[in-house]
Write a structure and sequence with these properties.
The protein has about 270 residues and is an alpha/beta fold. It has six helices and 16 strands.
Length: about 270
Amino acid sequence: MRIAAIQCAVSEGQTAANVAAAADWIAKAADQDCQLAVLPECSLTGYGFDSRAALERVAIRLDGPEVQAILAICAARQIHAIVGFFEARDGKIFNSAALIGPKGIAGVHRKAHLPYLGGDRYADRPEEVSASAFATEIGVIGISICYEIRFPEAMRTLVLNGAEIIALPTNWPVQSSILADHFTRVRAAENMVYFVAANRNDSAAGTDYLGHSQIVDPKGVVMAHLTGETGLIAADVDLEIARSKKIVFEEGRFELNLFADRRPEAYRL
């Protein structure tokens, strides 16, 4: 399977322009025979808002025209895409990422770990939290958002629930370079999972975004990487490697079985 990460600018509050740009990027990923495309955090709405009222003005609904446009392009091009946005739902606003495929919405992850930053300062935490690992015809895809890479329990729970790919739509500012340089590799390697991080590369609302989107394999090796440029990166992945959870250096003499060798009974407080 071929997967893609998209690194691009996002216009704060300009949902129509952002939706059009996202649809164009998804089409470009399909042109490169990708089955999954991951866009940045809040790619449909923008992120850098300074009040709850601003979030309320920009938040979109799952049944709104913005998501419908992404559904249409995914159906037309037979591709899965992960897009982020501030979501209006039952009087609350969540920082959400939807996994959309040719047959509809496969799942929605609502950010449970909220930093005191940007629009997250005014967003709601979901009351019910569960591992966002979604089974699709192309594999089991787990989703976390940005800051959540700092919580290893969240990543591990996705994989224990079957995730073969972890997608991280993110808005890393330049101060978060340690996440791009180290955390992505570690999260991939410690869980033996493919890890896809898609970040912005622009400046908005007083924040300079880092870029450095990447695709990492289950051994922690970076397969594709961008620095500060706008673009799309793609890589071919073999999900059997993520499923096996085993590293064989020399058969019968030097083997690591990272999940079979776990001792959950030793991890209790």
